[in-house]
User: What shape does this take?
Amino acid sequence: MMVELIISEKPNQAEKIAEALADKKPSKKNEKGVVYYELTHKGREILVGCAVGHIFNLKEKNSKGWIYPAFEYEWQPSYKISKDAEFTKKYLDTLKKLSKRASSFTVGCDYDTEGSLIGFNVVRFVAEKKDGKRMKFSTLTKDELRDSYEKASKHLDFNIIEAGETRHIVDWLSGINLSRALTLSIKNATGKFKILSTGRVQGPALKILALREIEIKKFKSEPYWEIEALGDVNSKHKGGSFWKENEVKKIHEKIKHENLALVKSIEKAEFKQDPPNPFDLTALQLEAYRALKITPKETLEIAQELYTAAYISYPRTSSNQLPESINIKKILQDLSKQEEYKNLCEELLKLNKTVPNNGKKSDPAHPAIHPTGTSPKKIGERQKKIYDLIVRRVLSSLSDPATRETQTIELLIKEEPFITKGTRTVEPGWHKFYGRFNPNKEEELPKLKVGEKVKLKKIDLLAKETQPPKRYTPASIIKEMEKKGLGTKATRSAIIESLYTRNYVKDQSLQVTDLGLKTVETLTDYCPEIIDEKMTKQLEKDMELIREGKETKEKVLDKAKHHLEKILKHFKENEVKIGKKLSEANVETLEKESIIGKCSVCKKSDLRILFSRKFRSYFIACSGYPNCKTTYSLPSNSLPKPSTKICESCKNPIVLMIRKGKRPYDYCINKQCPKKEEWLKQQGLIKNVPKTKRAKSK
Assistant: This one.
């Protein structure tokens, strides 16, 4: 009998596919800790295995050590390239065994460039085949997976695969060459070894942040004044901001003792407020940060979890449209089984509201993010919040516009005009469906008549200063990167995370460190091409042409290599100058960024985060050594960063611990902190262990 192997991208995905296709319950098998499935579908024997992401990656071919340029590469199993990927070996071994049993192959990975490339690498390197079938789906629901299997393409999506492989190679070439150039510039200039990194997107992204930081540093505040009248109605002088102190003081002296204001005019204007569009990934990340203060990186991680659990559609989409092919009526019927959405869904169904207010952004592979209708089970609080946001966004997009009314009242105080405005909701429309996520404020003004007099309590003269532009947040920088065509919807948040890790930025407000500023300044002076966004924007255009079959991988790679050669040649000419400047900036930044507070023992010196080369780990020590020998150990496998927080329980400093691929967590440096164990349990860093067992282990 013919045996078919379906290749999925993740274990959860494999399970969903197996359960959807099996005529009866699929047989769950375990190969040295790796789960795969055997099943029968309409008489066909099917195996379902998974690849856990990229189990093949790029490696330098014929490596001659740390030199640049390096343009020779080859695909190798990921576990042979990085220790962090050692866990992928058992998945690769399992796929090899399954491939030997199979005679046909179907890729069931996420339908995007990454998923297509992951599946193709298994087909060509494991199964040693040139082609296979391709399932295309946007949700992991049983109906869609079965439909996707029955309608699977007879051939792999080679244009998408070629686009994905091209981006993968260009990013690898850019990252390895430009990062080596930066690192070796310090080594060749000073003899010191400090790993620095940049890349095709990372450099231009840092430049955007640095330019804003420079703008803030150069900003000079200017004084201005406002006059505010407080009373039954709070208002401000119609003149707004006054830039001449004498002028505003004269007005204030004239009216400051007045206790009545005359209502000169009242204007009302109603306007319609259209429902929001369904979410694309960037819009979801922006809204989650605004409404829930969940970072873009974590929002994507949570959305991915909800997708693999079949609660929402594929989140890595650029579309804010829900096409007619999606059965919105059925989704509403299914959502109405959840108590929280029952009344809202029934109202939409009763009014036959099944057409969303679609936006203008489209994605050829996936629709806007939407709930599947499947009720979530056993999900965490943050997952609930993101799920609720997605559901309510879709419900809102299906509902009516809201009607808002803005009222403008002009008052006269000794012939001086004052203005107050307020906006309220007349007809809630979609506001009702968006619930707590509705950003609109209600500013109700008292009912007044023209000619009426209102009481005043006091009239203040407010002295103010102009403020510098705000720094980017993790959400607003992603919006800016999308606007400029930098990175992809799936990689932007990871790029910002790498800027944190490399000490180029700090804090939620994305403050650029001295190292980040000096890096941009140095590259601007000596090799501006590295941080120029032109190459990145051009590559995205080339990717689209490859997907459309109008350009080839070979031509795009040749163009990228030629561009890199020019950059690296220019860099080499200025290598020593660049290295000296970057080395100075790195020392200054480490000095500033390593301090976490004053030593509680000697009370004089600073506590600093240090790195032990001998033990390959970070620790904290008093800078007053050898007079003060106070030290604190830190958890391994985490990058510590200073924070401004102090432990409420023991009053010791708290450091922020950053873990690869996981949420950062706060860590009190005091080992004897009474709340330490409870705290670490909440972070999931230690498990609940019965006291008797814990005592024995000691």
User: Anything to note?
Assistant: The longest strand covers residues 260-273. Confidence is low (pLDDT under 50) at residues 688-698.
